[in-house]
């Protein structure tokens, strides 16, 4: 798996002119799924991103000290198969990205990891 992580003041995903997901302050995470990725790969990426110390600690003023969970910020996860694109001449090739029929349920399991059900 590959992830591109960006700190944001806010972020949203729009489809056909309609916002389908949005967050305030937090992380925008573009995630690419390789054809050979497993649940353990997803678990590793999720744990790493959620625990990355990217934010200033407001109490101490210390920079790069708190993670997104400590700040109670949002995470917007966006599937991005192009992270596994390979240029062959002038034509992109995405054959190492997980195929859509497999990637969709795999991606949804990752979303569930980030947003566990409230019990």
UniProtKB/TrEMBL annotation:
Name one cellular component (GO) term. Answer: cytoplasm
* Top-rank taxon, per record: Eukaryota
Gene3D superfamilies in the record, alphabetically? D-tyrosyl-tRNA(Tyr) deacylase
List where in the cell it is found. Cytoplasm
Under catalytic activity, the entry for this protein gives: glycyl-tRNA(Ala) + H2O = tRNA(Ala) + glycine + H(+); a D-aminoacyl-tRNA + H2O = a tRNA + a D-alpha-amino acid + H(+)
What EC class is this? Answer: hydrolase
EC number, UniProt record? 3.1.1.96
Query: Which GO-annotated molecular functions does the record name?
Result: D-tyrosyl-tRNA(Tyr) deacylase activity; Gly-tRNA(Ala) deacylase activity; tRNA binding
InterPro entries this protein is in?
A: Daa-tRNA_deacyls_DTD, DTD-like_sf
Location, primary (coarse class): cytoplasm
Q: Mind listing the UniProt keywords for this protein, alphabetically?
A: Cytoplasm, Hydrolase, RNA-binding, tRNA-binding
Q: Which PANTHER family match?
A: D-AMINOACYL-TRNA DEACYLASE 1, D-TYROSYL-TRNA TYR DEACYLASE
Listed NCBIfam families: D-aminoacyl-tRNA deacylase
| Similarity annotation | Belongs to the DTD family.
User: How is this protein named in the record?
Assistant: D-aminoacyl-tRNA deacylase
Protein species of origin: Gossypium tomentosum
Q: Source taxonomy lineage?
A: Eukaryota, Viridiplantae, Streptophyta, Embryophyta, Tracheophyta
